[in-house]
Structure to design on (684 residues):
């Protein structure tokens, strides 16, 4: 059945709004594509509408669950209670009723068990149960000061050879035939001068993993600023936090405005000041990002005090795995400066054999030292 | 044009099945939309779930030429778009010089001779927008390995299928190619590129579909063995392995077992062929710790329960 343009448009736009409310980024051109997609799939089936939405509106696997819930609320809620209303929702509703009665009932049950639609927005804040401390509104002058200093830190790191070739002055590497041919034209076809190329150099990727568990609380705020400075100050940086789970913050921290970046980061992290499961978090990092490519040939910096509630064997195993693919693993421990400090925390002791550099991280000065360690060849 | 042949998701799904590729509904919808909306399709997912294979199958299904661009770090225009055949250009110059032609011609004439289409080496992207009656299938494999700069360049090409060679002028596609991009997600592909594309996250197939895939791809083994293999692989995926086996590994394993003339999984045959499914020593250890006997038993139960 054909749906009038305006009603499909309206449905698409309001659905996009619900998705945005749920925290999925939905640019307007995706909505347009969604409308086009609705036009070509048969609108008579719930699954066609669902998959058309998935293909056009979702761009990250992380968003799939949110999408599923939003879909259930938006399309199947209309379905459940609004059948007597006029207007576009009804059209789709009726079609769904015709074709997919069974499915509908199943989802209705799920809906009832969950909640009613009035609190739609609330339901998407999946983080409620986890501790989420608002550190975005505080004013701490020293922290503000430290921010400037952190932005002055230069995290270079030793370069590595790239496959890309660049112009070279001296002979000896490879012929640059393109330039040679070009130049010879000026001499009426005489190859008067040979040109050369050599491999260019590239910065290594830097991956920063920040422990935000309860025991790291006094340091986490400052170190998050350090992480922000790293992300905006240098190319090819990836930032993660971990506590009970792993959160990728590269995108959130990439705003140059520190307040904005930190607010966004705070909103993104669900396990602020919670427990620590170092090994498990590292396993997640290795499996979903690190070993697949992100940590390969990279400098990996772990900012953590090494307190771990998990199994130290898991941590050791994952550190070993990480070290095998990374160019260098640096562990930054803010407690290291304490007089008489010995790495007795179980996690720390388990991780140390697989760490290339073990440094302090309690002050700006210590972080300056860290930049020198990172930059060393 | 063969594209118009598809008017529904079910048709696409059948056509894919006709090429021995069993797609689930979501993937078939994404392919159908990519073909009808003429949008690039970005596939992400674990290694070995059949992302690259899909592009090959689309090519076979539509009858278009498959053009593959394997991305890697440092890939640039001369490897992806076009290059000049410098050796032949130099030869041409020498010949002109030797015959004394070079002196009589002015430089601009010589230049236009040199930067002629016959000295142009077309790489994947330029070939993909060549004029043809059936659209080509352009597979841009592992886009996450290329640099950001290359991605930006790609975005430009994918939005209007035009490539400008400064010395020659602009090439544009009369029949735009069907574009499939794959990514293993070692880094995020840029949002702008994602916005251009339809997106699908390719999952490991569920048990019944995996059985069907094995049956289709390894017809020489009995159904009971296919079910056991699929069940064992499914169990392995739940073991927190470094590299959980993909469909590709399932097929390899089934083929290996078939070659060895094994009719039913048992502890010895699993131990002997484990290397076709698991590629890390640690993963082998983990499976041994969990117990191969258990795995076999589980596989038997699971294999039977749906019969």
């Amino acid at each position: 059945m054909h749906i009038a343009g305006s009603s499909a448009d309206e449905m698409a736009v309001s659905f996009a709004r619900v998705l945005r409310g749920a925290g999925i980024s939905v640019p307007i051109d995706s909505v347009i594509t969604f409308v086009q997609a609705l036009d070509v799939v048969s609108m008579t089936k719930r699954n066609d509408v669902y998959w058309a939405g998935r293909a056009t509106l979702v761009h990250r696997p992380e968003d799939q669950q949110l999408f599923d819930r939003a879909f259930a609320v938006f399309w199947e809620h209309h379905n459940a209670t609004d059948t007597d209303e006029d207007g576009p929702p009804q059209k789709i509703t009726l079609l769904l009723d015709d074709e997919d009665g069974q499915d509908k009932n199943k989802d209705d049950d799920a809906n009832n068990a969950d909640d009613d639609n009035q609190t739609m927005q609330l339901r998407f804040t999946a983080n409620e149960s986890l501790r989420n401390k608002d550190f975005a509104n505080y004013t701490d002058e020293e922290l503000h000061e430290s921010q400037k200093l952190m932005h002055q830190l230069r995290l270079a790191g030793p370069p590595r050879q790239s496959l890309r070739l660049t112009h070279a002055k001296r002979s000896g590497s490879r012929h640059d035939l393109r330039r040679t041919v070009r130049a010879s034209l000026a001499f009426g076809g005489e190859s008067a001068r040979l040109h050369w190329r050599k491999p260019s150099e590239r910065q290594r990727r830097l991956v920063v993993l920040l422990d935000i568990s309860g025991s790291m609380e006094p340091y986490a705020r400052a170190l998050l600023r350090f992480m922000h400075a790293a992300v905006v100050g240098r190319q090819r940086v990836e930032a993660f936090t971990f506590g009970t789970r792993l959160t990728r913050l590269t995108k959130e921290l990439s705003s140059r405005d520190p307040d904005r970046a930190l607010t966004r980061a705070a909103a993104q992290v669900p396990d602020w000041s919670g427990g620590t499961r170092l090994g498990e978090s590292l396993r997640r990092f290795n499996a979903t990002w690190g070993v697949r490519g992100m940590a390969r040939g990279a400098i990996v910096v772990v900012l953590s005090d090494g307190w771990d509630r998990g199994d130290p064997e898991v941590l050791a195993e994952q550190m070993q795995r990480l070290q095998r693919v990374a160019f260098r693993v640096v562990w930054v421990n803010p407690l290291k400066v304490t007089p008489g400090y010995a790495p007795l925390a179980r996690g720390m002791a388990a991780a140390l054999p697989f760490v290339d550099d073990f440094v302090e991280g309690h002050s700006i000065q210590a972080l300056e030292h860290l930049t020198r360690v990172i930059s060393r060849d | 044009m063969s594209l118009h042949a598809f008017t529904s998701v079910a048709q696409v799904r059948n056509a894919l099945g006709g090429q021995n590729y069993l797609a689930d509904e979501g993937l078939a919808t994404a392919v159908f939309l990519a073909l009808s909306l003429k949008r690039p399709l970005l596939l992400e997912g674990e290694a070995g779930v059949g992302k690259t294979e899909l592009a090959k199958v689309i090519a076979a299904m539509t009858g278009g030429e498959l053009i593959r661009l394997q991305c890697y770090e440092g890939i640039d225009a001369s490897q992806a778009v076009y290059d000049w055949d410098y050796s032949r250009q130099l030869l041409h110059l020498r010949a002109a010089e030797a015959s004394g032609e070079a002196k009589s011609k002015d430089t601009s004439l010589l230049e236009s001779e040199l930067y002629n289409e016959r000295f142009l080496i077309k790489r994947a992207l330029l070939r993909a927008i060549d004029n043809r009656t059936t659209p080509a299938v352009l597979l841009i494999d592992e886009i996450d390995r290329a640099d950001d700069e290359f991605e930006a360049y790609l975005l430009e090409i994918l939005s209007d299928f035009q490539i400008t060679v400064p010395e020659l002028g602009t090439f544009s596609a009369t029949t735009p190619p069907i574009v499939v991009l794959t990514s293993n997600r070692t880094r995020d592909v840029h949002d702008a590129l994602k916005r251009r594309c339809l997106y699908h996250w390719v999952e490991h197939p569920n048990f019944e579909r995996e059985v069907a895939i094995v049956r289709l791809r390894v017809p020489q083994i009995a159904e009971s063995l296919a079910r056991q293999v699929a069940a064992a692989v499914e169990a392995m995926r739940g073991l927190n392995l470094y590299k959980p086996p993909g469909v590709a590994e399932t097929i390899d394993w089934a083929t290996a077992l078939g070659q060895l003339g094994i009719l039913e999984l048992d502890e010895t045959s699993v131990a002997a062929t484990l290397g076709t499914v698991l590629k890390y020593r640690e993963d082998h250890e983990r499976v041994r710790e969990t117990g191969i006997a258990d795995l076999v038993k589980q596989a038997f139960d699971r294999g039977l329960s749906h019969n």
User: Anything to note?
Assistant: Chain B touches chain A through 50 residues (CB under 8 Å).
